[in-house]
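User: Okay, second chain of the day. Same drill as before: sequence in, structure tokens out.
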Amino acid sequence: SKYNTKVRAGRGFTYEELKEAGVNKKQAITIGIAVDHRRKNRSLEGLQRNVQRLKEYKTRLILFPKKADKPKKGDSKEEMLATAKQLRGPIMPISVTLPRLKARVVT
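Assistant: Same drill. Structure tokens below.
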């Protein structure tokens, strides 16, 4: 049916997905990742897909230091800070690629 194939963004990532992606629970909230403690992973494919999204988000993320003259360990490099720009709208929209169906002979 057309209703159960749509993949939608949920309320947040599970603790298991955060752990697989290497993100601390408390740090996730501070860097803009929504966390849903009620959700459970029901399939391995969904878990892996969300972990991949988290890893991709981490590679794109630019963390500014609280004090510009004293950057800490997890902060981004100065070259990345200079090229940073504010994004508007959905940051990483979920894209679904459905397999293309071949035309069949009418019987």
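The CA atoms of residues 14 and 40 lie 7 Å apart.

User: Thanks, on to the next one.
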